[in-house]
Write a structure and sequence with these properties.
With 177 residues, the chain is mainly alpha-helical. The chain contains seven helices and three strands. It has helices at residues 15-18, 35-53, 61-72, 78-85, 89-101, 123-144, 149-166; strands spanning 76-77, 105-109, 117-121. A three-stranded antiparallel sheet has the order 1-3-2. A hairpin with a 7-residue loop joins strand 2 and strand 3 (117-121). The longest helix has 22 residues, at 123-144. It starts with 14 loop residues before the first helix and ends in an 11-residue tail after the last helix. The mean pLDDT is 91.
Length: 177
């Protein structure tokens, strides 16, 4: 036999608390109407797709961007690398630590400033870039696959407009924007 449920006793309110003003309700906002919500979700999806496609290589999107940038500009310093791909210097230091630990990049002291570390890609890093290229490209194609082919270039153009116009608002503006 079921027990009858009894209502919890009402809290006892003291006079001053009972007279407190109730804050107005926040206006209802649909997340679906917010571009920031969709941009954040698309970033999560993009990372997930990249990791799925490149799983065999054990590289993250940030590591790929760093490695590709160092390959394109041998002797780049860490600060310039951070600026090139839009990351803060403390984050990029950890990324470079991991790339170096895996033997994909090498850090060398600058001849003109011993505090500056110059980055070069190793043969292993070059081999990784060559091996990961088809998987990385497949990830990019999967990200855009829901769009009709005719809209993909327009979508990329619009993304570049938004990133370029808002670049300086970032915690870590990019030189590429």
């Amino acid at each position: 036999m079921k027990k009858a449920r009894t209502a919890a006793p009402a809290p006892v309110a003291d006079a001053p608390a009972a007279a407190a003003v109730v804050a107005p309700a926040a206006p209802e906002v649909s997340l679906d109407a917010l571009p920031g919500f969709h941009i954040r979700r698309l970033q999560q999806i993009a990372v997930a797709i990249f990791l799925q496609e490149t799983e065999a290589h054990g590289i993250t999107p940030v590591q790929y961007a760093a490695l590709q940038t160092v390959q394109a500009a041998p002797g780049l310093d860490q600060r310039s690398l951070a600026r090139a791909i839009g990351f803060d210097t403390s984050t990029i230091a950890g990324v470079v630590d991991r790339l170096e630990a895996r033997g994909w990049v090498q850090r060398n002291a600058s001849a003109t400033d011993r505090r500056v570390r110059l980055l070069t890609i190793t043969d292993a890093g070059l081999a990784l870039l060559a091996a990961v290229q088809p998987d990385m490209q497949r990830a990019q194609q999967r990200m855009l696959a829901p769009l009709p082919v005719a809209q993909r270039l327009e979508f990329m153009r619009m993304l570049r407009v938004l990133v370029t116009a808002n670049n300086e608002l970032s915690r870590a503006p990019s030189d590429l924007a």
